[in-house]
Amino acid sequence: MSFSPDAAFAYLRRANEQRRLAHAYLISGPAGSGKRALASRLANLVNGNQAQDIFVTGALDVFVAEPGSKSRRIVIDQIRGLEHALQMRATAGRRKVAVVSDADRLQPQAANAFLKTLEEPPNDSLLLLLSALPEALPDTILSRCIPIPLARPAAAAPSEEELEVIELLSEIVAPAVAGIGDPGRAKTTLAGKPGSPTPATTGVQGAYHLAQGFQRVLARVRERIQARHAAALKAEETRYRNTTDGAWLEDREDHFKALSESMYLQRRAELIEVIFRWWSDVLRERTGVNSHELPAAAAQTRAIAAKLSTPECLKRIRRIEELRDQLGRNIQEALAIEVAFLSVFRF
């Protein structure tokens, strides 16, 4: 059962009013489900604060740990700092609230250190763990938190490019699912598209084909965005040619160039997120969680889950997270994608 953010807050508010609030909660849900907003509302509630985003403004007696290192992990020094803050005396009548955002990114040493805090929580403390992938947390941590799963927000229908990425994943994975490299066993619905890879094999060749296919999808995304903005610039040029001195043209060109790049980076991030969600489904299958973010790919993710161990699934999810972070730092796109896919999709 999953809550809407308002239903979850109502449940927690009743527990607080009845003095039955637990010492630790795991607020989970996919991106956009409202985990951080719910944590802010609960932190404000228990201490009587005015409505505020604790991740932006901070708040008295509220302490936050989230990924911040180059590896985008929560390291042990952050947890030690959190523990030290929790040992301090709270302001009279208040609770010390510790929030671990993206808790599934705790380094093993940090997770072990935080487990001790969960086992022996300081007086007047409230521990909130937030995660889009709770299946990646150790059972020892999961068992010490009350789960508050949030429902996936209503989403628009997948875009053409997102559907194509899902199809690419299904087709390239098909030989691995069958356990052979026979192209005749794979679907061929992409074979008629210009530049599409031949339904391939397992191993390095299959991973490379997938990387190439994904980059072709990205290239089409960029072309469409640029074409749309070129048409918009041309319309402006026609409209204002006879009413201005033309000095605006260079500024508008720069504007549309920057806008195109911004929109492309956003769409690229969304397509990387599809791959992350695909692997999250593999992990859920592996750990026995009957939930799919990409139901259309359930057969493939189920079959891959049967072939890989839980640590191997986690390793590949972490590699996708690293790719996402690398692309955010403007590392060469094509090289970063190929290197990552060769390690993530080599079955």
Q: Topology, pairings included?
A:
Blueprint: H1 5-17, E1 24-28, H2 35-47, E2 62-65, H3 76-87, E3 96-100, H4 108-119, E4 125-131, H5 139-142, E5 146-149, H6 160-178, H7 203-240, H8 248-286, H9 298-307, H10 310-328, H11 333-344
Parallel strand pairs: 1-4, 1-5, 2-3, 3-4
Number of domains: 2
Helix content: 55-70%
Low-confidence stretches: 180-200
| Secondary-structure-derived class | alpha/beta
SSE topology string: HEHEHEHEHEHHHHHH
Roughly how many Å is the radius of gyration? 24 Å
User: What is the beta-strand fraction?
Assistant: 5-15%
**Mean pLDDT across all amino acids:** 85
**So how many helices?**
11
Q: How many β-strand runs? A: 5
- N- to C-terminal distance: 34 Å
**Biggest β-sheet description:** 5 strands, parallel
Q: Overall 3D geometry?
A: globular
Main attributes of the structure:
347 residues, 2 domains, 5-stranded parallel sheet, Rossmann fold, 11 helices, alpha/beta, 7% strand
Folded structure, characterized:
The chain is globular, with a radius of gyration of 24 Å. It has 11 helices and 5 strands; from the N terminus they run αβαβαβαβαβαααααα. Helix 7 runs antiparallel to helix 8 (248-286), helix 7 packs antiparallel against helix 11 and helix 8 crosses helix 9. It starts with a helix and ends with a helix. The chain folds into 2 domains: 5-149, P-loop containing nucleotide triphosphate hydrolases (Rossmann fold, 3-Layer(aba) Sandwich), CATH 3.40.50; 160-344, no CATH class. The chain is an alpha/beta fold. Strand 2, helix 3 and strand 3 form a beta-alpha-beta unit. The protein has a 5-stranded parallel β-sheet with strand order 2-3-4-1-5, with helices on both faces.
